[in-house]
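User: Hello! I'm new to structural biology and keep hearing that structure can be predicted from sequence alone. Could you demonstrate with ABC transporter permease protein? Please show me the input and the output so I can see what each looks like.

Assistant: Of course. The first part below is the input, the amino acid sequence of ABC transporter permease protein. The second part is the output, the predicted structure written as tokens.
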Amino acid sequence: MAAYILRRFLLVIPTLFGILVINFALVQFVPGGPVEQMIAQLEGGGDVFEGFAGGGGDAGGEAIAANDSYAGRQGLPPELIAELEQQYGLDKPPLERFFLMLGNYMRFDFGESYFRKIDVMSLVLEKMPVSISLGLWSTLIAYMISIPLGIRKALRDGSRFDTWTSGVIIAAYAIPGFLFAILLLVLFAGGSYWQVFPLRGLTSDNWDNLGLFGKITDYFWHITLPVVASTISAFATLTLLTKNSFLDEIKKQYVMTARAKGLSESRVLYGHVFRNAMLIVIAGFPAVFIGVFFSGSLIIETIFSLDGLGRLGFEAAVARDYPVIFGTLFIFGLMSLVVGIISDIMYVIVDPRIDFEKREG
């Protein structure tokens, strides 16, 4: 097992390198970099992307043509543009910038945000608790719903209960997360019906003036809709996984033997079957958490105005804040790879019969 884990950790390096190479190469061809953003702000034109999106085909074409030679057509002196390029480190060739970035990343130095004037690591550490909180609550609630429901579906396999719950699960899995989040806002956040939950944010404006119980209540009041929206697809997958795992165990020989010995049905199911069926579900907790963390953070945080990593990455992509974009991609990729290794270790801990080295052989 130690050799397998070592190989997995060694594979982290080329994987992260590949992620950075692909994204760095893509950025070189994306229009509207940080220099163009700053030029648009200096000229009072707002966002440089307004020209790409608005006004019909002819207007869009003229805007693109104007941006192709912004130095001459927009009236800014070349010296100022050169100074901006030097300020953002874009005066060097792409290959040189890439290897400088790699050297810094090896020391976990992700640079400073172009527009926030704060180092990327501090930004990530500041936003991470919101995303972790959202992902952790969503995962825990998904497990609390999925395990009892999956067991009940397995015990009543083929019944009407199993059929209509499967329909609900498939519908829940098919609904896009952003669409369900908007539906929750419309229904329960004062969109058109009931003002039950707040529209945005993780805490109220008077958070600092609340007592301990008031802060806990306010926190759960704000996080209810985001957690429900991010849980909807995770619980569907987990429920079917639990049901199938339970069904596989029920059909095994040891269950028939336990029943033949006169053990009660509850003792057979929860004393033997449950323990073995839950191995794969429990061991997969880290992977489920990271899946909810990544898939839900961008859309859910943006819709509900939560100041987390997903929203940070979205705003950085819009503003072409390259240090934040590459820093968050690096951290997300590293977390995903490490959690994958932790998941494999969890499988071996809960079920020592699993041997990844023999499977690789």
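User: So the tokens describe the shape?

Assistant: Right, they're a compact way of writing down the 3D structure. Reading them back into a model, for example: The longest helix spans residues 212-250.
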